[in-house]
Amino acid sequence: MRIVVLAGGIGGSRFLLGVRAEAGPAGEPAESVTAIINTADDVTLHGLRICPDLDSVMYTLGGGIDPERGWGREKETWTVKEELAAYGAEPTWFGLGDRDIATHLIRTRMLDAGYPLSAVTEALAKRWQPGVRVLPMTDDRVETHVVVADDDQGTNRRAMHFQEWWIRHHAQLHAEKFVPTGAEDASAAPGVVDAIAGADVVLIAPSNPVVSIGTILSIGQIRTALAETAAPVIGLSPIIGGAAVRGMAEKCLPVVGAEVSAAGVARLYGARRDGGLLDGWLVDETDAGTSVDGIEVRAVPLWMTNVDTTAAMAHAAIALAQEVGKRA
Amino acid sequence: MRIVVLAGGIGGSRFLLGVRAEAGPAGEPAESVTAIINTADDVTLHGLRICPDLDSVMYTLGGGIDPERGWGREKETWTVKEELAAYGAEPTWFGLGDRDIATHLIRTRMLDAGYPLSAVTEALAKRWQPGVRVLPMTDDRVETHVVVADDDQGTNRRAMHFQEWWIRHHAQLHAEKFVPTGAEDASAAPGVVDAIAGADVVLIAPSNPVVSIGTILSIGQIRTALAETAAPVIGLSPIIGGAAVRGMAEKCLPVVGAEVSAAGVARLYGARRDGGLLDGWLVDETDAGTSVDGIEVRAVPLWMTNVDTTAAMAHAAIALAQEVGKRA
């Protein structure tokens, strides 16, 4: 079975662990899984090109992630970061670990040499052997910027990189708008459109619906491929009982006028038959009874406590895909 | 007294500690000292612009050097280097420490932004407060390449960066020629020519005469300024009793046809009255009796055992400068 997963960083990585376990026999790689990863969180700091979501996926699937933090390398040290701060080099708020920096150095060097991000990602994956095909959503530069103001009246309105809003300001500044800068002119990375077209099922990971999945959908070729594929598209809610499982999705949803609920996210994505994204939607048992016009909703446990529970989520999503697929 | 010192890396750094102590009252900066530093060892590795000699000087005078190794930062760690090797990223033979990398990141970022190396060096020095003015010999890119062959017959002749010959091959490959690539078209960095013109004395540190001092002299504007300055030019021998005090100068001297001796180096530099570099030359007591046509030679202890012995060397060099200056 050819499974395509659209995913962001930490939540997406954990979900992919479950999909890989569900798709492949234990200990064998699930090369039939293609992960299409958000790159709009990417940022250049201290001259290093950093791809937080790609790295989270690569480190998580490759066994190099810090399991407590959920991002960055395990047994990480912070010598370079401290030294940069000793020089007074800004910014100091980004978590730039020593082990992580080796990844960024290789990526930056390859990009400077003219390799596209997809080729860089493939080269880095040779070390990590993630066991699934990891593709950036695009080889073009797309970066989410946040238009913020000091209050609802739009006082002191300005734009900043998503990372600055998210990490430096902990999403506490009033956000008026998210702008995926560069998305309009961006093409899908090589392999992305073909993977979606040839998929048996497309899964939308329980990632941030606005700044992770939303930015993937901001690439026109990906939106078109999702509309045209014969594969059912099944999403998993990142909101359980009205709150984000992880991250600060509840800070992002109101900005795009969506309700912070499992139903709110499904409505944001929209029903496929009405020009939206989803054929089916998995919500947590807490949200049983959720219904959204035009979308098949099922309630199953959605806490990614370990690989087994996460594999069960992937299993339920694939089962729902087969159900809606037969009906179509 | 305005003192100009031409210097390479490790030996030059240690000598500058002595000059600074001799020039300024204890605890006060000797801003009257200008150090003109070789940059032809510079190399770009893993996308980082590395200036080994400038860094050795900056770390040594700023109190950040590893005193055992003589290069790189004290309490250094090697996490990034190990991770780069885990990715299979070449080269793996260069000693790239984590603390050191912060310096290279800032330098690379500033160079990429268009700042000249002299401005970058000044910015980095704000942290280290070396207490002397540190100038790169040039803002232009000059890199020493070594033409090597597998034997005297010139079998398998090829060129490589000096660092590859020096560090990777431990200067064991048969060298036929050193080429300071880019030197012909390079200008002296801002301040260099004025410092030499306005100096009361110019000191040639006991650095490698070929690949450190020799490359500084390969910049035409510096050669001219040294020929024209009213200041006496006094050198200190890096060879004691027929062997290099440190480093592998004995591997370099024969390549340029010079004898590995205190006299051999003085002859390589040449007497100023005959169009060469030196008015005076300090040799170690071991080499007492050394004489070179047209150059005043004095024998004094030249082991840079600590700052006091090194300051005494600087003192002797300045005394010799005053002696030859009066005679002129």
From TrEMBL, chains A, B:
The GO terms describing molecular function are: transferase activity
Q: Sorted alphabetically, which SUPFAM superfamilies does this protein's record hold? A: CofD-like
Top-rank lineage group of the source organism: Bacteria
Task: Give a yes or no for keyword Magnesium in this entry.
Answer: yes
Coiled coil regions, renumbered to chain: none
Q: Which UniProt keywords apply?
A: Magnesium, Transferase
Q: Name one Pfam family in it.
A: CofD
* HAMAP family given in the database record: CofD
PANTHER family, alphabetized: 2-PHOSPHO-L-LACTATE TRANSFERASE (PTHR43007)
Q: What is this protein called?
A: 2-phospho-L-lactate transferase
**What is the organism of origin for this protein?**
Fodinicola feengrottensis
- Lineage of the source organism? Bacteria, Bacillati, Actinomycetota, Actinomycetes, Mycobacteriales
Q: Which gene encodes it?
A: cofD
